[in-house]
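$ fold --in a.seq
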Amino acid sequence: MKRYMLPIVAAGMMFSTAAFAQYPEKDITVIVPYGAGGGSDIMVRTVAPYIEKYLDGDVSVVVENRTGASGIVGWQALHDAKPDGYTIGIITTPSIVTKPIEGKAKFTWQDFTLIANMVTDPAALNVKKGSDFKNVTDLVEYAKANPRVVTMATGNFGGDDHLAGLQLEALTGAEFTFVPFPGAAARNATMGGHVAVGSFNLGEAVNYQESVDILGIMADKRSDIDPNIPTLKEQGFDIIASSQRGFAGPKGMPEEAVKALSDALKQALADPEFQQDAKDQGVVLDFADQKAFTEGLAAFDKNMRAIWDKTPWLK
């Protein structure tokens, strides 16, 4: 009887592989853990039609905003989803790393299947058009002379916008009053003059320069998306801060699904039409496959844990 077992098992494996090789066979849901109009939401809605274009199969990519608890609600839903390749989501740094460090999440980034990174969006300091702050030096000097008077709009506490502001405080001795906002509300508050300065990513600011002045970005060099915007580094403030935004799924996703999605995303990012759409939407592209994405998150996690142990960013 044993002589028949191996062929039967092998046949079953071939059937299973052949069946999954048809992935995708139905629509794919992408969970965005932040509100509509924010950087992650814009990114997904811009790339979704191109992922559809390069996936085999006539399927749709459906965006689902699951907001709350600084991304944790959406990530918990992603974590708990069936790992069949039909529910994936966006994970972002630093929050996917910092929230578990803070003890606010029951999972870590290692509890997901990483697919690929899509964006590395530098932090930016933004003010209402016509502000008295014409550059970063103006802002810092005033905040040093008037501690806590300057209000700074950010996303959630412990997120990339907040940590960027804390880095500026630590480097310069300036003191700000941080005001957290969900989604695109930080940008709206800045444009409306409800706060003195907004800390949010370049991609969320670059297409609103009729209403905001971007004082500088926290990057090694100027961005191709708008080379006219200076870095903080060239203004004398050596701060590097950004948000990575990539795709992930529940733990245990089939490798075939990961490869299909990663390949489709890579093709999308190489599509000239998409590249123009991305530029128009302020999406700062930076593809990294699963291996590179994993290595980058591991290094970032190690760095954040060392910082938390020495000087926790939440008290």
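$ fold --in b.seq
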Amino acid sequence: MPRLALLTWIWLSFAVVHSIPYAYAIEERQTWVWFDRYHRAFPNLKIDGHCDNTQVLILQRAWEESKLLAKAQTGNVSGYDYDLVHKTWLGQDWNRTGKPLLAYYINHRTRSIAKNFEQLKRLYDGIIAGTQWIYWWCHDPGAHCQANKKDYSTIAESWIDKSSGIREIYHTVWCPLFFEQETLENQITRTKNNIADQVILDNFELNSAVTMYHETFHYDNLVGYPSIKDTVFYADQCYQLAKVIGTEKAYVNADSYTVDALAIYIQQKFQLSSPPLPRFVIEGTKPPDLKKWE
């Protein structure tokens, strides 16, 4: 969905950036928000002063679980067939670099995917430039959480602010629906004794960890390069995107990376003989039509 453009600035003293909360202002509304430094998730992270203790705990738990997805996707488990999963969700051309006779754009996509994985791993490992900051919002003065023109509800929204000149500030507003989502652990626990449920990826795609992981791919240059969009959502549509259109679209679609990580994590968690797949594939029903979300 489109990112909303806001006129913003940071009011701060650069001499004390490590000790004093920042005030963030939205010019049109004159709403001042204090952000407190938070040390238990991403580096260089500040959290909206409107977040209550319960919301902070939910964010912390979501980050911890999303880190499990990052470790699964960027890890190197001996004998695991990463190629099979990546081809399923990112298309057949996800890893075609180093072949000089291929068209430039095919090699470019492969390099971009590799760079996205590398930058994602660095971020979750706590490596970030001193000029890059992440701000998490719990209230929504910019009206990001309102239903869009097609009445799709927003769970979270991210954007980048470069107006300060020196810093790149990556913002995510966590909408009320985010704080109502299940945890990934709850879904794991519910399906732990049911292999029939474990092999259906749809059973794990709606939770706070998956939402948070998805949003990190919208942090342009910090993680996503080139800019990662929302072309389609969820496992069924991402499966069709990779199969029908291929890497050309999948490598710049946030949920394609997200369900890729989720499939790896679930297979390794339950020690499944093959990666989980969308329900329509498992049950042999009609695939969904690809839809353009705007």
